[in-house]
């Protein structure tokens, strides 16, 4: 579960931003007049050629019904997207809380591994440059991996406590 949360963080951020753009677009559409909405969302008129309808609505009434139905669909899309955003933000907030509970070195390793998707040799080099260079106490890739496994155990137990 921790791996899923960590690996999904950046994807969640991108999804949230895309959904917000869609919501803005849909909200803008709702402010347009009926004929614009109808032209944006109605199917080509040729699809209905040759099909007889049992109702005798005039074209204006038909368009208004289509537009009202489309507005309801758009409002549903907006609500569903807002719910999805809340869910993704909740997941990312959990990750933020878990990362805040860690020291700078531990947080660095997790971010490089899960958010930046870097390889162990690169993480080790950057870790040593950032945290160990001053004291010339370098750590090997296997040391960074062991530290990583300990960090994951630590945040897994914290996550379990949070979710109880």
Salient structural properties:
6 helices; mainly alpha; single chain
Question: What would your notes on this structure say?
Answer:
By secondary structure, this protein is mainly α. The protein has 2 domains: 1-42 and 59-100; 103-164. 77% of the residues lie in helices and 0% in strands. The longest helix has 42 residues, at 59-100.
Short description:
This protein has 6 helices and no strands. The protein is an all-alpha fold and 164 residues long. The longest helix is centred in the middle third of the chain and has 42 residues, at 59-100.
What does the main sheet amount to? Answer: none
Query: What's the helix-strand series?
Result: HHHHHH
Secondary-structure content class: mainly alpha
Name the overall outline. elongated
Total number of strands = 0
What secondary-structure arrangement, pairings included, does this model have?
Blueprint: H1 2-30, H2 34-41, H3 59-100, H4 104-115, H5 120-132, H6 141-163
Helix pairs in contact: 1-3, 1-4, 2-3, 4-5
């Amino acid at each position: 579960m921790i791996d899923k949360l960590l690996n999904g963080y950046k994807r969640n951020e991108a999804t949230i931003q895309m959904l917000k753009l869609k919501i803005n677009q849909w909200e803008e559409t709702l402010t347009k007049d009926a004929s614009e909405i109808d032209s944006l969302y109605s199917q080509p008129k040729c699809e209905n050629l040759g099909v007889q309808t049992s109702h005798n609505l005039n074209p204006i009434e038909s368009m208004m019904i289509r537009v009202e139905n489309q507005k309801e669909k758009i409002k549903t899309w907006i609500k569903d997207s807002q719910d999805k955003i809340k869910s993704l933000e909740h997941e990312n907030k959990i990750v933020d809380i878990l990362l805040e509970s860690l020291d700078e070195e531990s947080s660095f390793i997790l971010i490089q591994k899960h958010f930046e998707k870097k390889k162990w040799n690169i993480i080790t080099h950057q870790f040593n440059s950032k945290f160990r260079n001053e004291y010339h106490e370098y750590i090997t890739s296997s040391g960074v991996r062991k530290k990583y496994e300990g960090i994951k155990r630590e945040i897994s137990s914290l996550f379990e406590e949070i979710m109880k």
